[in-house]
Write a structure and sequence with these properties.
Shape: flat
Strand content: under 5%
Radius of gyration: 20 Å
Distance between the termini: 43 Å
Helix content: over 70%
Structural class: mainly alpha
Largest sheet: none
């Protein structure tokens, strides 16, 4: 799968060009539109990847992947990077629409998503470690 999506790049270029033409007063609407298209692209990729994995498991060509300590780090890192990248435009939108209260709510959401994700991964790993220890007894 390609790292850079040319279709998404075209959308970003078009959004930036439109912002130049319309000015900053339409920035939040343009940003929301682009983020919606980005969400759709990510959803489409995830569905495609899940379908491919399910087909491989159904055929028996590949066992299902299990989370371990090595992948936990990269999953947490990816969620942190994505949430921080998205937090920048969301912060701008929050400040423009709701001021300081909006900014605080926005960042509380960013911190909350990262905390829940991190705690969820730890719980899964601790559960698996407990199961492995039970099998050793």
């Amino acid at each position: 799968m390609a790292t850079h999506d040319p279709e998404l790049r075209k959308e970003l270029d078009a959004t930036l060009q439109t912002r130049k033409e319309l000015g900053p007063e339409y920035e939040s609407e343009l940003l929301e539109s682009f983020l919606e298209k980005l969400d759709q692209t990510v959803d489409r990729r995830v569905r495609r990847q899940l379908a491919e994995q399910q087909m491989q498991v159904a055929r028996g060509t590949r066992p299902p992947r299990r989370a371990d300590a090595g992948t936990e780090f990269w999953q947490r890192f990816a969620v942190a990077v994505v949430s921080l990248v998205l937090a920048i435009p969301l912060s701008a939108i929050a400040v423009v629409n709701a001021g300081l209260v909006g900014l605080v709510v926005c960042w509380a959401g960013v911190v909350g998503v990262n905390a829940v994700h991190s705690l969820g991964l730890r719980a899964v790993l601790l559960h698996r470690i407990g199961q492995r220890d039970e099998h050793l007894d």
